[in-house]
Amino acid sequence: EIVYFNGEWMKYDQAKISVFDRGFMFGDGIYEVTPFYEGKAFGLQEHLARLQYSMDEIMIELDAASLKPIMVEAISKSGLSSADAAVYIQVSRGVAPRTHYFPEDVEPTILIYAFPASLKAFENKQWSVLVSEDLRWHRCDIKSTSLLANVKSNTQSHRLGLDENLLLRNGLFTEGSHSTIFFIKNNVVYTHPEGPQILSGITRKFVMEICKELNIDVIEEAFPFSHLNTVDEAFLTGTTTQVMAVKEMFTDGNKIYDKPEIGSLTRKIQQAFIQKTR
Ligand code: PDD
Questions:
Q1: How far is CA 76 from CA 38, 150, 256, in A?
Q2: Which controlled-vocabulary keywords does the entry list (predicted)?
Q3: Dihedral through CA 81, CA 88, CA 149, CA 183, nearest 10?
């Protein structure tokens, strides 16, 4: 309902952007989503650091740390101080006449708001996912608002009644449309290495820490589609996804992965994650 827009708090329908905002015209902007468990931020420094990284990479000059008090205020102003919620931050290039290059000295457009998020009970759910081609660009490490490939893929899985996508680039799993993928094989956890092909997930980082604490080996290696039949367990992670077990995978109407029960290592990691975040 209430949003922070370019320095002021207002009702969402009072916030107006220019048709020449480059976020609107080019998707020239970046965003960040930070979880708040019962009013308390989790991984705040990590989210601010990634926000700074995204802005630096696209040359938006703004100090991410200056947005920290506004994030906290967004939670209280939205009456979410004792609920599970998340804060959305979007910074776009700003308003300028339409040219592909961006001119210098454009004021960025800043939008921040809090929304209720169901961060609980993921240990009672499993997701069914569509395996599809990774149609995205080669800088997925930037949390860009240009999400057309993610939107196209996720709409396809949604229309099939599925929960998420697993994206394949050159026969290797990269990540989900809005989550990180982990595979478990012979008690070893595999996840794609950081780099331009994936978003450096904050939940991913915490889950890797958990694996270390539990003495579970993690290999940061892209998992091949052709090895899917050797997988014991798979789970997805993300700010809104938390630690979600994968139940089924589909391609072109065929079921290619079927695990009706949540695996034992996934359960262990989920329990440790709940301990960490609560
Ligand atoms: N999505 N990969 C992609 C492509 C993502 O969009 C996200 C997060 C993740 C998980 O990152 P993290 O653990 O830091 O949330 C991985 C956010 C939540 C979104 O788009 O809403």
A1: 11, 31, 45
A2: Aminotransferase, Transferase
A3: -50
Domain co-membership, 156 together with 270: yes
Domain that holds residue 134: 122-277
The Cα angle at residue 271 between residues 234 and 154, in degrees rounded to 5 = 40
- From ligand 1's centre to the CA of 59, what distance in Å? 21
Structure tokens of 79?
């009456």
* Cα 97 to ligand 1 centre (Å): 31
Atom of ligand 1 nearest to the CA of 47: 14
54 C-beta closer than 6 A to ligand 1: no
Cβ of 240 below 6 Å from ligand 1: yes
pTM, two decimals, is 0.97
Do 126 and 90 lie in one domain? The reply is no
Tell me: the pLDDT tens digits for 215-239? 999 999 999 999 999 999 999 999 9
